[in-house]
Amino acid sequence: MWQAYKAPAGAKVAVALSGGIDSAAVALLLRQAGYEVFGITMRLFDEGEGGGESGSLQEAWAVARRLDMPLVELDLRRDFSDIVISHFETFYIAGLTPNPCVICNREIKFGRLLDAALAHGADFMATGHYARLERFGEAGPFRLLRGQADRRDQAYFLHGVGLGRLEHLMFPLGGFAHKDEVRAIAEGYFGADFFRAGESRSICFLKGAGHVDYFVEKGLMEACAGRFVDQTGSVLGPHEGYVRYTPGQKRGLKVVTEASVSGPTEIKPVRGLTVLDIKAKTGDVILGPDSACYSTSLVASAPRWIGRVPVEGESLEVKICHWGYLLTARVGPLSGTDYSGQGSISVFFEEPVRAIAPGQHVVFFSGDEVLGGAMIERSEALSFAEKADEATIK
Predict the structure, then answer these.
(1) Alpha-carbon separation of residue 324 from 112, 183, 361, 386 (angstroms)
(2) Where is this site: Interaction with tRNA (predicted)?
């Protein structure tokens, strides 16, 4: 029988501390439950980069001091740059929409950080992720489940962690239905003014408004020049750099007319069209009617399974982005899909789906259980007849 997993009493637990409310609440709850707790945190980029990395480290130390517990600080700047930031830059320049948090969780947090926690004598590493673990019997396999707090569920980000890693993990917040419950626990002990206001940013190393500012500062925008082109091949004009766009985007589409002796550079908004595709080799961004942004299927590569491997024809629920809704889909042909992270998988949706972005991940759920996920390579658009009948698209 599957049952919620609880680590043995008195186990030594490393808490991955970010300095925020969630990880602080985890450390507090585990200490109150009688576990031997110490903190572990990581430096991911140089001080002053990423809009406040040093501040997060200071807050992690403040939590540890308040709880009077040891804290191990790891310097993972090189690994983070070589793996996560490199992935982020490479994918955007390739015309894809990356999800660096998935890569970070797989390679850094539940890779390098977990290894360090175990090397420092921990039996388990606990994090503030909103997810759950169950075990079959007392000595059976583990499985990863979605958190009870539906809109805060973070199981999407954890699909690539690896089956062999689950036995070393704890997610104490997975059973909470609301973030406010966790906040009340943390603020009740640390005080309401102890934590910085606001939620943590989804991509920790970005400055300013988002990834566009990052590419401008790095001097990478010239490599992303190109044109807006419609579905017939007609050129609408130069754009401002294709890393600004993602499939499904309607806002912020502007044609740039170069400066000439007759006047300054002119920027004209593009109205009534949607980004359908990005062709990085030519720099072209393909625009068209919003109805052409819907797809009936996708193909994803390098699937990683944390649960059982689904079978062709099986009906499951999937997510194509973290904040997206669960979508009903049927598993199509699988190629070389085992636990090695090789091969590909096709997915057919019950209803047309808008704005599938290559580079993101499709994650598979059987009920609340996370089976695994794969990186989206491409989507298959609706046929011409289906596109023409926009009334069928919801």
Answers:
(1) 29, 24, 11, 23
(2) 129, 360
* Residue 348 C-beta-side C-alpha neighbours within 13 Å: 9
Q: Are residues 299 and 317 in the same domain?
A: yes
Shared domain check, 57 and 44: yes
Predicted confidence (pLDDT) at residue 242 exceeds the cutoff of 60: yes
Q: Based on the residue annotation, tell me whether 104 is a catalytic residue of this protein.
A: yes
Domain that holds residue 72: 2-190
What are the tokens at 276?
Answer: 């359908």
Kindly state the tokens that stand for 120: 């420092």
Options 101, 204, 224, 293, the catalytic residue: 204
Last residue of a domain, one of 141, 167, 190: 190
What the block records as the tokens of 177 is 């239905």
Lowest mean pLDDT among 134-143, 149-158, 298-307, 350-359: 149-158
Give the position of tokens 């199981």: 155
Report in angstroms the alpha-carbon separations of 259 from 239, 255, 283: 14, 13, 20
Whether 321 is catalytic = no
- The catalytically annotated residue of 101, 104, 224, 293 is 104
- DSSP codes joined into one string, 114-173: HHHHHHTT-SEEE---SEEEEEETTTS-EEEEE-SSGGG--GGGGTTS-GGGGGGEE-TT
pTM for this structure? 0.91
